[in-house]
Design brief:
The complex is a heterodimer of chains A (461) and B (488). Chain A folds into 2 domains: 200 residues, PmbA/TldD superfamily (PmbA/TldD fold); 133 residues, no CATH class. Chain A is 21% helix and 36% strand. Chain A has 10 helices and 19 strands. In chain A, a hairpin with a 7-residue loop joins strand 17 and strand 18. Chain B has 2 domains: 226 residues, 2-Layer Sandwich (PmbA/TldD fold); 256 residues, no CATH class. Helices cover 21% and strands 39% of the residues of chain B. Chain B has 10 helices and 24 strands. In chain B, the strands form 5 sheets. In chain B, strands 1, 2, 3, 4, 5, 6, 7 and 8 form an 8-stranded mixed beta sheet that branches. In chain B, strands 10-17-18-20-24 form a 5-stranded mixed beta barrel. Chain B has a 4-stranded antiparallel beta sheet with strand order 13-12-11-16. Classes of the chains: A alpha+beta (461), B alpha+beta (488). Strand 3 of chain A pairs parallel with strand 2 of chain B.
Chain lengths: 461, 488
């Protein structure tokens, strides 16, 4: 692994070669491996090691970035020159800020737990194959075939700048995703954690297998509005579509569904959401793309959006804008993306607040007269950016619930559902859990029971 | 590079690999963008590295590294072998590959102007000019422009003796005008969404796109959409302009014909396919007018799926996919071809970069233009009542590729053979084979464009790949329209 000392040495050479007013080095990379299986066979099995440095130079209101994965002197000279060539020819931007100083990048006041686990960093191909072997055995026990992944990685993220900022983060990650396939049905489970010890391939495989078996011979029922029980992965992939609208720049650009809606009761009173990098179930570095420390932000309080997140530049712009007194507190929150960028900032450590009276998925089913249990959603896309209507499909375990019981599997639905309405129609929630899907970054979200979820079509399986 | 590859191949074979290949990649990229007159992106990137892919004990292993030193090459090759041995612990049968002649070859993307030779000032000035045109329209609240260049140099060597060097050049550019008013965000993109038009071509593409000339119209359309009528719900004859038809091909033909999906290898993430093996040469995929090819050859055009050899050394080919409506072919690799009894791979294995495993990717999946002369205007004038869909806004399809729904940025009602009122928020949906069987007209060669889709995601870890899609405007009968807003 690239060490902090090695990165510091590389940055000192970058500084030496730089002729710019200011310079920043963003380091990334690590070692990762992924064992992939399908048809009860490991069919792909890969490993990589790669590190890079992205150099940003600043000349009086002009900035640009160049990236390389080679750290010899000539490559570093080349990357500095490429960044400077791109920056020098620009017209100065009066809104461009100096790079942050060391105090802005100081560690967060709240303790961020270590996310590096030696056991996870040391996972071998044999250990991953052993885990896959257990999953395949469970598939064979149920007369199913299985497909999925077992991955592990160790990574670094770091930022240094010429004003003395020096932030370093290292972490590990492990992930298992399992699909169990029967002739006309399937089931799925996925789990991700900084520690491989938190993943249990057999438990995940048994749940996925149960879903595949119980959804066999799916019944076709008509599209329409249904009460749905969305398992956490389905909640994650739906709600993940809204959080990039919670940045100050999104409001200034007038591309956010929160324009003219901040402070209003947008969702149900039972919805409260935080961004909290220090939460024990979260992951990632405690600093943003400029190196500024991340703050804990209460984004949604009892259904009303109360706070936005800000990069430093967006803060300055917002303070001067017509929205300044309508968007809650305006201050740098440590959520900026590396500069330059189009998006500004976004909350990346989402945690839904635990409900007062949490219900398990089983309790939600037991309380439902007629509804649909959804394991997972797929290919979600935004139909309407302001009403936040999303379309997508159910997948890998969709069930009819009647009189408090799962009755049978059903053919998959297409939905066209406003996220605003969905979060206004939540009747029950579980305790939030760390959740991994395919359409969103990982978050801490609950399962939800939602009324009047809008299915518009049925597919053929 | 040859010494590096020999070292890796020797190490792998000495440690027990029955087959090994090495890919070395040196890629350079440049991205420039503006947002409301300010530079929102100015970045260069350079990445170099290599990978070793091996077959040991009938199973695959793959390892990659950015460190091109001899010690790293040896250890990476040894790592690939060790990984393959672990793979062999969970297998049902040994991997077989169809044979392929190993060749020595050199190829470059044909291009007139190296995009990296154009000054940054000239490019930024062009983007600023477009920006200024877009924002000269009252009601445009956000204008974004972009320009992207990529140069990839790839070396491929195999234990069978292949020695292939290719250089690919990609250029892309486009822009978007947004308009926020009341409770609506509307947008128009040019020449297409997904960053505009992308081709394996030099800077000459930028001039061909007439970017400045179209900017004001695009801005005006974005604003005018607020006053347009909502697209109605119901069954309508619809016309898809060529970029939207290109994406329709991508989603409802290109992905389901990937043989790795068909064989279950992508079941956990991208999904499977309704095109089970029994459907080859038996399924009536579309109407008689539907002819689709997978063509990676240079003569097909400068698509993002154009090359001379794929990433396992198989020459570019043209595979008939749909012939007069009949389903006739899959996208295959050496491994998947062997699994279904084909004699040869279709040559579609590609990787995003040096640190990714090559996998089956669309090449240029194109619908052939109509043989009878038919212009876009003639297509409209022969339509009594219908809806014209332009420029994709949303796209979604199930994991077997049956049920799809697309939305476009703008629609136009066609009445009595004429383009009538503008429609906002248009969408259409259907079932893949029912849809393609409803195609009753397609324009001829003059209206055919080879579009680039730069953002196709597949694989674990996910890889983003560029694909090409040639298409001409086409008409489909009695398609379900407007479901996206039903119930909302």
């Amino acid at each position: 692994m690239l060490t902090q000392e090695q990165a510091a040495d590389i940055f000192s050479r970058i500084r030496k070669y730089s002729t710019a007013d200011e310079v920043e080095g963003l380091f990334y990379g690590g070692r990762s491996a992924l064992t992939r299986f399908a048809n009860n066979t490991i069919h792909q099995n890969v490993a990589e090691e790669n590190y890079g440095v992205s150099v940003r130079t600043v000349f009086g209101g002009r900035t640009a970035r160049a990236t390389t994965n080679r750290f010899d002197d000539q490559s570093l000279k080349d990357v500095v020159k490429a960044s400077e060539d791109l920056a020098r020819v620009q017209e100065p931007d009066g809104d461009l800020l100096p790079v942050p100083n060391a105090s802005e990048g100081a560690r967060a006041t709240q303790a961020v737990p270590s996310r590096h686990f030696a056991e996870t960093a040391a996972v071998t191909p044999e250990q991953r194959a052993e885990g896959v072997g257990k999953i395949v055995s469970i598939a064979q026990k149920h007369k199913l075939t299985t497909a999925g992944i077992f991955s592990s990685s160790e990574s670094i993220e770091a930022i240094f700048n010429s004003r003395g900022l020096n932030n370093w983060h290292t972490q590990t990650s492990a992930e298992i995703s399992i699909t169990m396939l029967a002739p006309d049905s399937s089931g799925w489970q996925k789990s991700n954690s900084p520690s491989v010890a938190n993943l249990n391939p057999q438990v995940l495989a048994e749940i996925a297998a149960k879903k595949a078996v119980e959804s066999a011979t799916p019944r076709e029922i008509a599209a329409g509005k249904y009460t749905v029980i969305l398992e956490p992965a389905a909640v994650l992939d739906m709600t993940g579509f809204m959080f990039f609208d919670f940045g100050g720049l999104a409001i200034l650009d007038q591309r956010s569904f929160l324009n003219n809606r901040i402070g209003k009761n947008l969702f149900g009173e039972n919805i409260s959401i935080w961004d909290d990098v220090a939460h024990p179930l979260q992951s990632g570095p405690s600093f943003d793309g400029e190196g500024v420390r991340r703050q804990k932000i209460h984004l949604v309080e009892k259904g009303a959006v109360k706070r936005l997140v800000y990069a430093r530049a967006s803060t300055e712009k917002m303070r001067k804008s017509e929205y300044a007194d309508k968007v809650g507190p305006v201050e740098p929150t440590g959520h900026g993306f590396p500069i330059p960028n189009e998006m500004g900032e976004g909350p990346m450590n989402i945690v839904f607040e635990s409900p007062r009276n949490p219900k398990s998925v089983e309790q939600m089913i037991a309380s439902t007269e007629r509804g649909i249990l959804v394991t997972r959603l797929w290919y979600i896309r935004e139909v309407d950016p302001y009403e936040k209507i999303l379309t997508g499909m159910t997948r890998d375990g969709t069930f009819l619930v009647e009189n408090g019981k799962v009755v049978c599997g059903v053919r998959n639905f297409r939905f066209n559902q406003s996220l605003i309405e969905m979060l206004s129609n939540v009747e029950q929630m579980s305790t939030p859990v760390r959740t991994s899907g395919e359409e969103s970054f990982d978050m801490v979200v609950p399962a939800m029971k939602v009324r009047d979820f809008n299915f518009t079509e049925v597919t053929k399986f | 590079m040859k010494d590096l590859a020999s070292c890796a191949l020797d190490t792998a074979t000495q440690r027990g690999a029955t087959y090994a290949d090495v890919r070395v990649v040196d890629e350079r990229g440049r991205a420039l963008a503006t947002k409301n007159a300010k530079i929102s992106n100015a970045s260069d990137s350079r990445s170099q590295g290599f990978n070793v892919r091996v077959l040991v004990d009938g199973a695959w292993g793959f390892a990659s590294s950015a460190d091109l030193s001899r010690a790293s090459v040896e250890s990476t090759a040894a790592q690939a072998v060790a990984i393959a041995r672990a793979s062999a612990k969970v297998k049902q049968k040994d991997v077989q590959l169809v044979s392929e002649k190993a060749v020595t070859a050199e190829w470059s993307t044909p291009h007139k102007i190296d995009p990296f030779s154009i000054s940054i000032e000239q490019n930024l000035a062009l983007l600023q000019k477009i920006d200024s045109e877009l924002r000269s329209v009252k009601g445009v609240t956000l204008a974004e422009t972009n320009m992207n260049f990529r140069r990839e140099e790839l070396w491929f060597f195999s234990s069978a003796g292949a020695d292939i060097h290719q250089t690919k050049v990609t250029t892309g550019a486009g822009y978007v005008a947004y308009s926020f008013a009341g409770s609506e965000i509307q947008k128009r993109s040019y020449p297409n969404s997904f960053g505009g038009q992308w081709q394996n071509k030099g800077y000459e593409l930028i001039d061909e796109l007439k970017l400045v000339e179209n900017a004001r119209r695009i801005g005006e359309e974005a604003v005018a959409l607020h006053g347009a009528d909502q697209c109605p719900e119901g069954a309508f004859d619809i016309i898809l302009e060529s970029s939207q038809l290109g994406l329709q091909i991508h989603e409802s033909v290109g992905h389901p014909i990937e043989l790795d999906r068909v064989l279950g290898m992508e079941a956990n993430f991208a999904g499977t396919s309704f095109l089970t093996l029994d459907k080859l040469r038996t399924l009536k995929y579309g109407s008689e007018l539907v002819n689709v090819v997978a063509d990676a050859r240079q003569e097909h055009g400068p698509g993002l799926g154009t090359f001379a050899f794929d990433d396992e050394g198989v020459p570019a080919q043209c595979t008939p996919i749909i012939s007069n409506g009949l389903f006739t072919g899959y996208l295959s690799s050496r491994e998947t071809a062997a699994l279904i009894g084909l004699q040869r791979s279709g040559g579609t294995l590609r990787a995003e970069s040096w640190n990714r495993l090559p996998m089956i990717r669309m090449t240029n999946i194109s619908i052939l233009p109509g043989e009878k002369p038919l212009t876009g205007e003639q297509l409209i004038s022969s339509t009594d009542h219908g809806i014209l869909f332009q420029t994709n806004r949303s796209w979604s399809i199930d994991d077997k590729r049956y049920n799809f729904q697309f939305g476009t940025e703008i629609g136009w009602e066609i009445k009595n053979g004429k383009r009538a009122r503008m429609l906002k928020n248009p969408s259409y949906s259907g079932i893949t084979t029912e849809f393609w069987n409803s195609m009753d007209a397609i324009c001829s060669r003059d209206e055919w464009t080879l579009w680039g889709t730069p953002n196709c995601g597949k694989g674990q870890p996910q890889q983003v790949m560029g694909t090409g899609h040639g298409a001409a405007p086409a008409r489909f009968k009695k398609v379900k329209v407007g479901s996206a807003y039903k119930g909302n």
